[in-house]
């Protein structure tokens, strides 16, 4: 069973630039989650998808952030006009979810973003 | 809203010692789940265990064991005969019922000294 993959693993950008991250979930997992983790903290929820529908967005997700999951497969997270405060690890997770049972979320290796 | 407290920020033990990581949770859900994840230096969160609120039996998996006590809202994790490979940050988490978004604690950094 192939795990969750994320690309790129590391990204260094200059303030004001746009960046896009990709997440490929475990096949047949219909739920996909994005989390952000800053140094010394636990991951914080950003948004999640049930198939292609984005069902919830955290208040952490400002207007500069947008996420998509076309066709209910891979997902992209774009940050526009990056700020130094966006520097963090961005984690993607997927689960079977949606059947009324709280399924386990399996995480990818993360994308570490540094905004200079 | 869910809340998870991991009061131990950092723990260091000598290899082969036993170590217990504490987790205290708060939830308004009558049915809920609890998780433990391990985050090694590589950064990937590795799933360790999922426990539902109906099952208060302790669980053992090799050198790992978990003690779930609803009366004290705790779900503690014990590593027996610790090894250097156990060095990592360990997170306790609980999901919101329905959408499953996880609320994590701040984690406990465990260092096993050879």
Structure write-up:
The complex is a heterodimer of chains A (about 120) and B (about 110). In chain A, the strands form 2 sheets. In chain A, strands 2, 4, 5, 6, 9, 10 and 11 form a 7-stranded mixed beta sheet that branches. In chain A, strands 1-3-8-7 form a 4-stranded antiparallel beta sheet, with no helix packed on it. The mean pLDDT of chain A is about 90. Chain A has strands at about 5, 10-15, 20-25, 30-35, 45-50, 55, 65-70, 75-80, 90-95, 105, 110-115. In chain A, a hairpin with a 2-residue loop joins strand 5 (about 45-50) and strand 6 (about 55). Chain A starts with a strand and ends with a strand. Chain A is mostly beta strands and about 120 residues long. The mean pLDDT of chain B is about 90. Chain B starts with a strand and ends with a strand. With about 110 residues, chain B is mainly beta. In chain B, the strands form 3 sheets. In chain B, strands 2, 5, 6, 10, 11 and 12 form a 6-stranded mixed beta sheet that branches. Chain B has a 4-stranded antiparallel beta sheet with strand order 3-9-8-7, with no helix packed on it. A two-stranded antiparallel ribbon of chain B has the order 1-4. Chain B is built from no helices and 12 strands. The chains are: A mainly beta (about 120), B mainly beta (about 110). The interface of A and B includes residues 31, 44, 48 and 109 of A.
* Structural category of chain A: mainly beta
Task: Give the overall silhouette of chain A.
Answer: globular
Main sheet of chain A, how many strands, which sense, barrel? 7 strands, mixed
Helix and strand succession of chain A?
EEEEEEEEEEE
> How far apart, in Å, are the first and last alpha carbons of chain B?
40 Å
Mean pLDDT of chain B equals 92
User: Average pLDDT of chain A, to the nearest integer?
Assistant: 92
Oligomer: heterodimer
